[in-house]
Amino acid sequence: MIPNVLTIAGTDPSGGAGVQADLKAFSANGAYGMSVLTALVAQTTTGVSEVHEIPPEFVTSQLVTLLDDVRVDAVKIGMLANAEVIRAVIGALDRYAPPFVVLDPVMVAKSGDRLLAPEAVSALRDELLPRVDLITPNLPEAADLLGEAEIEDPAGMPGQADRLAGLGAKHVLLKGGHLRGESSVDLLYGDGISEFLSSERVDTTNDHGTGCTLSAAIAALRPQRPDWISAVREAKDYLTEALRASARLDVGRGHGPVHHFHRWW
Ligand SMILES: Nc1ncnc2c1ncn2[C@@H]1O[C@H](COP(=O)(O)OP(=O)(O)OP(=O)(O)O)[C@@H](O)[C@H]1O
Ligand SMILES: Cc1ncc(CO)c(N)n1
């Protein structure tokens, strides 16, 4: 059976990040994709020009309307914009208890624009994080959640992942994409697992939406795989191939998107 996978996130008209990237990654990884919008974002490969936040009551309305009808096998949560939207999402998670929940704690776009109000970080950390199965922070997000300095060496990753797990997420995928070096190293941690996942660093500036793509591919694959480690490994391989395939795209003048190729077509 094809899994039904939901993204709760903001938009990107250029199709590289947010809901648009998530839906492409769901399809490419064998899932049926659905979306609930938290914010309309005027953005492209060069940055964000405006954010229109969806009223929290309407986020709830979208979630209840959908979840009263459709069985959801996994959820990916991306941009949440503010604390009221975070609480609307928590309300739906508590009511419908989807089997797998992946949280990409989106805070700042690659362009440096904020996608989560600074005062909402504590709601995300204290109220939402304990309810998710996997959190996928990059290094700046991990530092922000822990109130620590950003680490600059992979040797510091297990300690930070352990402290993030201490905040309540069952698993942590700490992404080292912001570190320089020959390879791009992430750490999957929690529930008895501590495994570095390394992939060849692709020499490209088409890295808009890499975090969205990875977390969405994990959510799509998890219901189809026996455990987190297999889903995460395969999603990372998919992302590396999508980064390579981005060489075939000509989209925008800034950080271009990755290309969501379909493996089975
Ligand atoms: N040039 C690259 N080559 C290979 N893998 C990469 C490259 N850049 C990032 N990655 C991988 O992409 C994933 C996302 O990492 P990153 O830390 O850049 O996320 P992010 O900052 O949340 O992304 P974004 O904000 O653009 O969505 C990680 O698995 C990371 O290792
Ligand atoms: C809507 C949205 N979510 C996440 C990101 C992170 O890159 C982005 N740029 N836009």
From TrEMBL:
Ranges where the Pyridoxamine kinase/Phosphomethylpyrimidine kinase domain occurs: 12-259
Pfam families per UniProt: Phos_pyr_kin (PF08543)
ATP-binding found in the keyword field: no
Pathway(s) where this gene product acts: Cofactor biosynthesis; thiamine diphosphate biosynthesis; 4-amino-2-methyl-5-diphosphomethylpyrimidine from 5-amino-1-(5-phospho-D-ribosyl)imidazole: step 3/3
Gene3D superfamilies in the record: 3.40.1190.20
Reactions catalysed: 4-amino-2-methyl-5-(phosphooxymethyl)pyrimidine + ATP = 4-amino-2-methyl-5-(diphosphooxymethyl)pyrimidine + ADP; 4-amino-5-hydroxymethyl-2-methylpyrimidine + ATP = 4-amino-2-methyl-5-(phosphooxymethyl)pyrimidine + ADP + H(+)
Record's keyword terms, sorted: Kinase, Thiamine biosynthesis, Transferase
Keyword Kinase: yes
InterPro entries, alphabetized: HMP/HMP-P_kinase_dom, PM/HMP-P_kinase-1, Ribokinase-like
EC annotation from Swiss-Prot or TrEMBL: 2.7.1.49, 2.7.4.7
An MF annotation (GO) of this entry: phosphomethylpyrimidine kinase activity
Highest rank taxon of the organism: Bacteria
Protein function: Catalyzes the phosphorylation of hydroxymethylpyrimidine phosphate (HMP-P) to HMP-PP, and of HMP to HMP-P.
Full protein name: Bifunctional hydroxymethylpyrimidine kinase/phosphomethylpyrimidine kinase
Record gene name: thiD
